[in-house]
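Hi W., the 3-acetylpyridine adenine dinucleotide complex you wanted:
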Amino acid sequence: MDDRSPITSKSDFDAIVVGAGFAGMFMLHRLRQQGLKARVFERGSGVGGTWFWNRYPGARCDTESMEYSYQFDDALQQEWNWPERYSAQPEILKYANHVADRYDLRPDLQFNTKVLSATFDDTRHLWTIATDDGKAVTTRYFIMATGTLSVANKPKFAGLDGFKGRVFYTSDWPHEGVDFTGHRVALIGTGSSGIQSTPHIAAQATRLTVFQRTPNFSVPANNRGLSEEERNATKARYGELRNFTYQQPFATDFHMNDVPAMSVSAEERRRVYEERWNQHGGLHFMAAFNDLMFNSEANKTVAEFIVEKIHGVVKDPKKAEILAPKNGVVGCKRLCSDTGYFETFNRDNVDLVDVSKSPIEEITATGIRVDGVDYPVDDIVFATGFDAMTGAMLGVDIRGRNGESLRDKWAAGPRTYLGLQTVGFPNLFMVTGPGSPSVLSNMMVSIDQHVNLISDTIRHLESAGIVEIEPEAAAEDAWVNHVNEVADLTVYPSCNSWYLGSNVPGKTRVFMPYVGFNTYVAKCEEVVAKGYEGFVLVPSGKKETASV
Ligand code: N01
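Structure:
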């Protein structure tokens, strides 16, 4: 219950938001601007979400900082000075804290509080939110701003409990940092987190042994400091840049070369790839041609190029062979962007163990056993990823109309309309939920679009006297099909990735994000223009509609 203001006659709060990352903070700001009484529950002790938890060495964003930032207030984007093209985790966390202070958000942020359950009351149109401090509050709107990569995937390795050394997860890194000096370290996992942390751990540890299950594609980030001149040039055209990114499929300016790869000669392809590799760097690489994510043949040309680069960098041919993906599809698993990752395997203190054919057998008291061979280590770093997109939603016991459990409803994969709402759970909104572009876009732009959409929707409900909103079943069914149809036009479904949930043992394999931010925005605008087409809106005083 809110102890700062009297309880309203209907509910303790107008809105409860879960998560004080970039989505939750902006959501709170918007709700307050509308005069609503809102509270944010956050399990961590501070703001920043993913940037609060993922403090591993080398953590940095692979979307350019001038774009990976809020756009709701021009004064904020004019006054903040990003130091690097791709800023590191401490700088991004500093920015999150700056925003919390600048907009005086903290009085409505409740830290160290985990939401356990949320239950909808059909008759009062209210949600009851129970937290791990033993309290419960009621609210009219319940908004999950829990992020897409916020629940760790922790594989159950035999023997882990008996390991006598130190164990770390990149997704929950000790705030005081970790000193690996004089230690033999094992790193398990070679996704973005493993690839970013490898060079840093190797530089400090006596020995680093990387256990790789699937070789990954990674391109040089070409990170660098930003000069004041560069920053000012971007600031001078911020409005134009933000408008442009809203019209892009990935909500970022990748400098797309709008030409199909197979329409040019092999020499021209190489020239463009070399230019992207050496000059642009980062995820811009995949915009070298416009069909790399749609045409397997085109994708193969870029895969061959990266494999050749890996063999060129890594001096030990055995290591190079293990590191180079075979028959891999670039971007199918999310492309990584690195600083000196492959070069790190040229260090004498770095080993590589291929666990693709013989998985990690056991973790012993003193190390890791693979195929009967013991690798003695002092520390193990798990960079094994996340229960992406649904993990945090299903971490809360959410019960909708007639007590229906969200966990049951989504057992065979998430079902949403626009990644915003799900049938049977009125007035529950998801920021960048499954079925929205989310992880296939610049998250800050997707957050901007979703938070504005949710707050505009709430404003409409308030002014029209609507007490409930939820999707029509037909609209949800059609949207789920559409998300998959669009994904099937791309190379995304052709491998095992966290986009499909296939990284988590037992999770149903369903493609979760929506491909195409710009088309998604147009769809949302159309839905709103047609009076929330595909949603059921229940006016005050009316009983439940049979159509829901
Ligand atoms: O996680 P991942 P991540 N035995 O799932 C391996 C974002 N992010 O934290 O591929 C052995 O990509 C697993 O192997 P496999 C970004 O969106 C962004 O690195 O499943 N290995 C894989 O190699 C990113 O994509 C940034 O065969 C096991 C690794 O663990 C997302 O977060 C930085 C295993 C997990 O890789 C997730 O990245 C960091 C097992 N039992 C993260 N289980 C930037 O902005 C799993 N693995 C730069």
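The chain is about 30% helix and 15% strand.

W.
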